[in-house]
Amino acid sequence: MKAQKLIVFAACIFLLSLTAAQAQVKRTITKTEIVDFGPGGTLTVTGAPNGSIRIVGAQTNEVEIVATIEIEAPNAAGLDKLAEVTGFISEGSTSRVLITSIGTHAKQLLKKSKKKIPKELLGLPFRIDYEIRVPRYIDLEIDGGKGDLVVENIEGSMRINFIESNAKVAIISGSINLTIGKGNVDVAFAAKGWRSRLVNVMVATGELNIHLPTNLSAELDAVVLRGGSIENTLPDLKPRDRKVPFTERSIIAKAGVGGVSLKFSVGDGTLRLNKLALP
Known about the structure:
Blueprint: H1 2-22, E1 25-36, E2 42-46, E3 53-58, E4 62-73, H2 76-85, E5 87-92, E6 96-102, H3 107-113, E7 126-135, E8 139-146, E9 149-152, E10 158-164, E11 167-171, E12 173-189, E13 195-212, E14 218-224, E15 228-232, E16 238-239, E17 250-255, E18 260-275
Parallel strand pairs: 2-6, 2-8, 3-7, 3-9, 8-10, 9-11, 10-12, 11-12, 12-13, 13-18, 14-18, 15-18
Antiparallel strand pairs: 1-4, 4-7, 5-6, 14-17, 16-17
């Protein structure tokens, strides 16, 4: 009996030591940078595989970048190695600023840097959360992985792709092409002074909530492609073709006197058309 207890005790000690050996240590780093950049250009952001991106327009002639970086490794020495190669690089010209996330996922950039990373550190999880302050009048090109997205107070065109995101995007002007693989997406159109061209918003799986002003004039297409439904609370929408009535998965409509093309689609999930709530 005593021998059995000793064996069980030894096994527990072994498992605890193994767990301790496998435990990761973590570190949070903040990196900042300011790039001189006036209105009228384009900001291109390539996010990390995991991490949020928040972009806010302001009366400024700079792009201010604040990146919060979380890394983990088996020990402090590993953290020091990862800290050298995890973060972002920026490039600027008179018409464009590029922000590119770097880390162990970016093998080509690692080769260019000529920094050697031990194999056991490759593939370890990390995340980069961005807070970016930009001129109000600017175009955006954003590619993200998994993480929240916020875009507000921007007057310009946007091309945005995210693998998975809970996103909130305010639209004031410009053409919009927004694609989210999975998540919940809120898109609000400006109540006053909205000036836009083609708008195309797609969510593969999840929820898409569209908030439209009451004075909207547009050609609106809303569709759920596979499973799910459309919830429409806009009483003034009229079918563009009398022979094509609204259904729970398709709305082909004209708002006001018509005009710009608005296309909203969900693969599987719920698409909601709501009246914009004024502050």
